[in-house]
Amino acid sequence: MLRKFIFSIDEFYHIYNRGVDKRVIFLDHSDYSRFTKLLWVCNHSQAFVFRDLIKDIPSKNIFDFSADQTLVDIGAYCLMPNHFHLLLHEKVDNGISVFMHKVLTSYSKYFNAKYKRTGNLFEGVFRATHLDNDVYLQYIYSYINLNPVKLIFPKWKEESGQENFNSAKTKKFVEGYKYSSYQDHQGIKRQESKIINKEAFPDYFEDKRDLKEMLNFWLNYQDESIG
C-alpha cells in the first residue's frame, strides 16, 4: 500500500520507520546488508527478483547493478536495530512512495522467510517530514548520522557536555559504524558509497571537516527545541 502523502518534486524529506511493537528488524550483519543493498537496487522503476538480479550480474556484486533512472536521491541514511532513517530528495512524481514501497515490501518478505514469521514487520506506513528550511535540513544530516550514539549512550541528548559523557568514544563509534552514510560523507571508499548522491543536496559541507564540525555542534547541543 502506497502512502497517501503528497511529496513535491525537488523537495527534501526525512523518512523514518520502525519495527512493529518496536521489535528488532535487523538481527545480524546479513540483515543490515540486505536492507542496504535494497536501498541501491530498489531505486529504479523496473520490477526485479533479488536472487535473479544477482544471477544476471557477472561479478555477483549487487552494487555493480546500474539503473537507467533513479526514483529518488538519497542524501543520508542510518540503520538501527529496530528502526531506520533516510534523507530523500523527490526526483519524479511518486518517487519516494514507490521507492519506499519496494524497499519495505522486499525487506519484509526477506525477513519473514528467513526467520519463519508472518504478518507485518514494520509499524504501519512509513513516516515522512518535509524539510522546508536550511536549518532543519542541516540538522537532519547530523541527526541521522549521530543516531548510532544511542547504542552506546542511550541518553546522550541529556548527558552530552556533562562529565560522564565520553565525547571521544562517541565520535570513534560514529566514525566506525558501518550501517550509515557517515563514512561515505567522509570520503571513505566502499561499495555502499554508490547509494548516496551528494550532488542532489545543498553543498553545506565543502570538505569532510565541515560535517565533523557540524556533528560536534549537535553532539554537544543542549537545546532540544529543534526536532
Q: Separation of termini?
A: 28 Å
CATH superfamily of the largest domain: Transposase IS200-like
What is the total number of structural domains? 2
The main β sheet shows up as: 4 strands, antiparallel
Percent helix: 25-40%
β-sheet strand percentage: 5-15%
Sequence stretches where pLDDT stays below 50 over 5 or more residues: 222-227
Radius of gyration: 18 Å
- Helical run tally: 8
Layout of strands and helices, then pairs:
Layout lengths: L11 E7 L10 H13 L8 H6 L16 E9 L2 E8 L4 H20 L12 E4 L3 H13 L9 H4 L7 H10 L5 H4 L22 H12 L8
Antiparallel strand pairs: 1-3, 1-4, 2-3
Pfam family, one: Y1_Tnp
Protein name: Transposase IS200-like domain-containing protein
InterPro entries: Transposase_17, Transposase_17_sf
List keywords for this structure.
227 residues; alpha+beta; Alpha-Beta Plaits; 4-stranded antiparallel β-sheet; 4 strands; globular; disordered C terminus; Transposase_17; transposase activity
At a glance:
The protein has helices at residues 29-41, 50-55, 95-114, 134-146, 156-159, 167-176, 182-185, 208-219, and strands at residues 12-18, 72-80, 83-90, 127-130. It has 227 residues and is of the alpha+beta class.
Structure notes:
One of its GO terms (biological process) is DNA transposition. It comes from Candidatus Vogelbacteria bacterium RIFOXYD1_FULL_42_15. The chain has 227 residues and is of the alpha+beta class. The protein has two domains: 12-130, Transposase IS200-like (Alpha-Beta Plaits, 2-Layer Sandwich); 134-219, no CATH class. It is 36% helix and 12% strand. It is built from eight helices and four strands. It has helices at residues 29-41, 50-55, 95-114, 134-146, 156-159, 167-176, 182-185, 208-219; strands at residues 12-18, 72-80, 83-90, 127-130. Strands 2-3-1-4 form a four-stranded antiparallel β-sheet. A hairpin with a 2-residue loop joins strand 2 and strand 3. Helix 4 crosses helix 8 (208-219). The longest helix is centred in the middle third of the chain and has 20 residues, at 95-114. It is globular and about 45 Å long. The two termini are 28 Å apart. The model is unreliable at 222-227 (pLDDT under 50).
